Amino acid sequence: MNANAVLDICLQALIVGAKLSAPVLVTALVVGLAVSLVQSITQLQEATLSFVPKAVAVAIALVVCGHWMITEMVSFTHELFARIPGLLGGV
Question: Where in the cell is it found (predicted)?
Answer without folding.
Answer: Cell membrane; Bacterial flagellum basal body
